[in-house]
Every structure is written in structure tokens, then in C-alpha cells.
Amino acid sequence: MKAEELSNTVMLHENNRMNQSLNDFTQRLYNNNYKASYPSKTLSLVKPDDLPDPLPSLSKDILYPALYNQESSMCTIEIQMDRPEDTQDGTWFSLSHEFQLRFECQFIERLIDGFLLLCKEKPSVFVVVPHRSQRSSIKQLLENEKYQNLNIKADTVDRMQGQEADIVIVSYLFFDALQVATESEFLFDRRRLNVSISRAEKFCLFIGSESVFDPPVEVLGSPSCSDAYQHLMYFVECCKTQKSFFNLKVNANRATDNNSQNSE
Q: According to its UniProt record, what is one Pfam family this protein matches (predicted)?
């Protein structure tokens, strides 16, 4: 790079979008001089006494403790899909692409409904996914009448750069370890991960499968993938420190049954 080009390089020193908790995470890339202009940005939440009783299970067990925790604006949900009963002996099994899309879509629907229930002022929500097939499935969900006139969008990482929302849901639900290994250079890209997380103004929720949080060893053999993985693990560790990391175990047989019933 020429000297005159270096003189035109701009180093970011101020963040006009994220609150303090999210800004602290991005400092890992932009150094400690990267300051939040609006550090106290938070979601407006319904008073606990005004919430319905009982709350839906996902809202009660995950969203409520995560959102009403004043120390955190980040949350991670790891979903472990248990093997079906007929493959407990080690028989190979795989979940179909269609099943994964349906499961992801239904899970995100429960998350969005939970956010709308707990937030006093309806927040803007952006669902970020790596693949176009995921985007299409979730966009179809958002055509539901209950989401009309609300600022809720879904798109791929590459198409949402420059956009922002109160709440960002980043979904990396890939239950097939072979798929994760095959697409590792695409999925474990630090720029994509950082763009996804940094679109959130007030709260970022990352949901991923066990295959993403504990990927095949060959994935970490690539320096670029390893770098992206470490960036993701830093996000996870921040959530664990702030008590906003949650692990869900889902039985594949029951999930399949639920999907069948919901599609009828």
C-alpha cells in the first residue's frame, strides 16, 4: 500500500449503533478505543407483574432470564439434537434438509413471539441466516398475519450489511456435522459472523447446533476457520460470563412428530 493510501485509512473510534454490552464485544476487533456513543440503549420490557402467567416455556426458561438480566445484551442458545431411539446403537442417521428448515422456522417463530410478548414497545427484529433456503423459509413464516405491520425481517448475512435492528437473531442451526465440515469456509467466516452480530442495537441472540459449537476437527485445521471459530467462542464466553448461555436438548423423534402434527 502506498504512503498516500495509508494516510487516507480511517480507524473507527466511535460506535453510534450498539449499546455498551455489544460494543464491548466488538472491541475485540476494533481495540479498546472503540467507544459506544449510546451505551445505555436497552429494550423496553413489560413489568414482570404485568406478564401473563404462565409464560410459554421458551420465554420463561430462556428469554425472560436473558432479557431481564441487566448485565447482558447477548444470548446464546445451543441446541443438541438427540439421536432417534432406533439409532442409539451407533447406526448412522441424518436429518433431512427439509426437517432442519421446518424445525428452525418453528423455533424462530417461538423466539419472535416471545420477544413481542416481553417487550413493551414492539422492537424491530432482524433474523440473519447464512443460506437463501433458510431465508426463504423464514420469510414465508413472516407473512403470517400476526407479524403484519411489525418491523421484522429476515435475510442472509451478505445482504444485510449496513442494516440494523433492535434485536438480531443469528441462526446457525445445522445438525449435520458433514455439512458443517463441507461448508466450513463459508460458515466459519469471521467477517460474516461479525457483521451478523454487530447489526444489533440492543440485543443479539445467537442460536446454533452442537455441530457448530463443537465442529469436526478438520474445520479448525484451517487458519481462517479457526479464527472465526475463536471469535464465535468469545461471544459464547461473554454470554456464559453474563449467565445468558442456554443449552437445549431436543429428541429427534419427538421433534419429527411435532413437525408432522404442525404440518397437518
A: AAA_12
CB 77 within 8 A of CB 206: yes
Strands (E), 135-216: 152-156, 165-172, 200-209
Residue bearing cell 448461555 = 245
Residue 138, exposed/middle/buried by CB under 10 A (0-12, 13-18, 19+)?
Answer: buried
Question: Tell me: the pLDDT tens digits for 210-264?
Answer: 999 999 888 889 999 999 999 999 999 999 998 999 999 987 766 544 443 333 3
pTM (2 decimals)? 0.85
What domains sit in the chain, N to C, each tagged with a CATH number?
Answer: 14-83+95-254 (3.40.50.300)
3-state secondary structure of 206: strand
Task: Give me 255's grid cell.
Answer: 421433534
